Structures are given as C-alpha cells and as structure tokens.
C-alpha cells in the first residue's frame, strides 16, 4: 500500500518515515512544508513532496495522487497560537480528508490525542487544541473514508516498548512516539481498527494483539 504521510517532518512523522521505508508491505510518500525538508528526505532515499495544509484542497489532491492511504500526523505545534491550531489541526486535517476522498485513497489513519472525544477532559488552557482535534475526528468519522483514529496519551521521546494498551477509554498515561508510529502502521491493514477510534498508551500487550482485541 502506498501511504501519503502528512506531517513527515514531525516527531512522530520521522519515526513513521523510517518504519515505512523498512516495511515490506508499504511504501511512503512524505509530505513536508519546506523545500529543504524535501531535499533532505530525497537524499535519504525517501520519496518526498512539498505540500501546504494552509493551501487549497486541489493542491493536496495533486500531492495525494497515486496513494492508497493517508496517515495524518501534522500539527501546528505548541509554539503557535490558537489561530494556527485551527488552520492546521482542524481545517488542514479536513482538507486532507477531502483530498483523500477525491483521489480514491480510501484508508485514512488519524493521529489525534487522548480523551479529545470527551469534552469533560479538556484543559481550559488547551481548549482550542482539544476542539480542533475533536471536530477533525468527528468530520473523519462522518466521511466516506475507512478511518482509524489513534488517541495517544502523553508523548515520549524514548525507545518504543512494542507494548500498548488500547480501547474506547483508557486512563491517561504516556507512550513513546515510536510506538505510536508503529501502531499507526499496524492499523493500516488490521480490520479490527476499521472505522474505529481508540485511546492509546503504553501497556503490556503486543501492538498487533492489542489492536485485534480493541
């Protein structure tokens, strides 16, 4: 399966690029925001393309052509204001879904955030972020795309364990970014995750087994 990876230069995205490059099932087209990022990825043997989530759906359609699935792990980042969060995390995500539908990329894996489906867990300081994730996820669930929504807990920059806990509601905890990436890839062809959304933290069960039992 050829995957359009949106947010390839992010911290989860870099793990996804490495893992997809080493996959015997999938290939990757990495979408990034800057020309120098494209060149850097190409020098590493990665197919890369310039894409703009603040641009038009038509522009994203051109980027997505030839891809059978999308993994969306882009975000505005903690250093930006609420306006960028709404533009990237909400509208950019929705435009990506529209582009996927127009190009026939039926599979769409969204990396969201834990408990964003339940307003009572939203932090007042990050309500704009929570709202953006919440409504992007809801738009995806209402689309015609065969979606999977991952809602990981606190993200860690440490080696993955290969063990997760996943379910409709999981107590807030942490998870290495490497394991989030591995779970997103495993979900691509795991039928138990089709049209499902679930919380995701470090656990005691292997990723494939945990996904089969959500």
TrEMBL record:
<dbReference type="InterPro" id="IPR016040">
    <property type="entry name" value="NAD(P)-bd_dom"/>
</dbReference>
<protein>
    <submittedName>
        <fullName>SDR family oxidoreductase</fullName>
    </submittedName>
</protein>
<dbReference type="Pfam" id="PF13460">
    <property type="entry name" value="NAD_binding_10"/>
</dbReference>
<feature type="domain" description="NAD(P)-binding">
    <location>
        <begin position="7"/>
        <end position="190"/>
    </location>
</feature>
<dbReference type="InterPro" id="IPR036291">
    <property type="entry name" value="NAD(P)-bd_dom_sf"/>
</dbReference>
